[in-house]
Amino acid sequence: MIVAFSVTPLGVGEDVGEYVADAVRVVRESGLPNRTDAMFTSVEGEWDEVMDVVRRAVAAVEARAPRVSLVLKADIRPGVTDGLTSKVETVERHLSR
């Protein structure tokens, strides 16, 4: 499964990068395959381990912010591994034609 999620602290002003870094740090320390871009962090693994990482990432932001927004999208596809890479490679292959 791949989960793309965004954790946003609310009530802390406009500069939220420091808070978001706390969440991304949790994801990177999890050891699960992951990618972060300007809008979302994607993480790949089994349901329980991915959702635990999301929960802990939210908790890291929640520890410092009075309110937290979570946006989450999941691709639940049993038996697929390395989807973070293979899905992008498929699109790039089609673009190169």
Automatic annotation (TrEMBL):
Gene3D superfamilies, sorted: 3.30.70.930
Tree of life domain: Bacteria
Coiled coil: none
InterPro entries linked: MTH1187/YkoF-like (IPR029756), Thiamine_BP (IPR002767), UPF0045_domain (IPR051614)
Gene Ontology CC entries for this record: cytosol
SUPFAM superfamilies the record matches: MTH1187/YkoF-like (SSF89957)
Domain Thiamine-binding protein: 3-92
Pfam families hit by this protein: Thiamine_BP (PF01910)
PANTHER family registered for this protein in UniProt: UPF0045 PROTEIN ECM15
Family: Belongs to the UPF0045 family.
Protein name, per record: UPF0045 protein
Organism: Streptomyces aurantiacus
